[in-house]
Specification:
246 residues, 9 strands, globular, 7-stranded mixed beta sheet
């Protein structure tokens, strides 16, 4: 913002300054606006400063683990890197359009084969959405991770990496109760509490691997998620683990 002086002035305008917006419209617009942008859009006040990206209390989204029905489609978001690799698994209740995050993989400084084995153990049939930058990112061996993980047996799709649009989609689902998280996801909860913007409104790119995985999952689950294949279901119709549902 330019410095205000005798030769410069600043004019701010908000929704109350325009006559064509009635109160119902203002309330509707406010409800559809992320919290960190509400002052900027409704009052014309710059408000991109530091603060939580998802200002929804954890208690509002945490649920006790339960047996996931086999017919709920599942997928995972996948964020790769040498210092930390993370995968976040979700099951989709299509009846109410709610995504349940039920298990996580979270490990650093391990070869791709180690991560792939841990992810396949949760269901080698489950498709994933991965950071599109993984095609050109290298670890110690110089391998392109997207293709490397595919060769290791993971069913991967490239996720879009439109950060602001992805953050908004996640926030909208969180604020309307359409993302729920099993209480057992301790690493997810730790990252969620610290996920924030800095004083210039930029996303702090530290301790955010599961948050990125969540963004990839939300962007893709509708198009890639699938239910448990018939061969993976027992004769009783129950999946193997009644707690995490795989």
């Amino acid at each position: 913002m330019p410095e205000i002086s005798k030769s410069k002035f600043l004019v701010t305008a908000g929704w109350n300054d325009v006559p064509h917006l009635d109160e119902d419209t203002k309330e509707e617009l406010l409800a559809a606006t992320p919290p960190h942008l509400r002052d900027a859009r409704s009052k014309g006040i710059p408000s991109l400063g530091a603060g939580a990206i998802y200002p929804i209390p954890l208690d509002d989204i945490l649920v006790d683990p339960f047996q996931i029905p086999a017919y709920w489609p599942r997928a995972y978001g996948f964020d790769v890197g040498w210092n930390r690799t993370a995968a976040l698994f979700g099951a989709w209740d299509r009846d109410v359009d709610c995504l349940y995050l039920y298990t996580e993989h979270y490990r650093g400084e391990a070869e791709p084969s180690i991560h792939a084995t841990a992810i396949r153990a949760r269901g080698d049939w489950i498709p994933g959405a991965i950071d599109p930058g993984s095609r050109g990112r290298a670890q110690k061996d110089g391998a392109q991770l997207f293709y490397n993980y595919q060769q290791l047996g993971l069913r991967l799709n490239l996720a879009p990496n439109a950060v602001d649009a992805g953050l908004y989609d996640v926030w909208e689902r969180l604020s309307t109760g359409r993302i729920k998280v099993f209480r057992t996801l301790q690493n997810f909860q730790a990252e969620y509490r610290l996920y924030r913007r800095d004083e210039k409104g930029r996303v702090v790119k530290e301790f955010d691997h599961l948050m990125d995985a969540l963004r990839y999952l939300v962007a893709c689950y509708r198009s890639i998620a699938i239910p448990v294949p018939a061969r993976k279901t027992s004769s009783s119709g129950r999946v193997g683990d009644p707690t995490v549902g795989y």
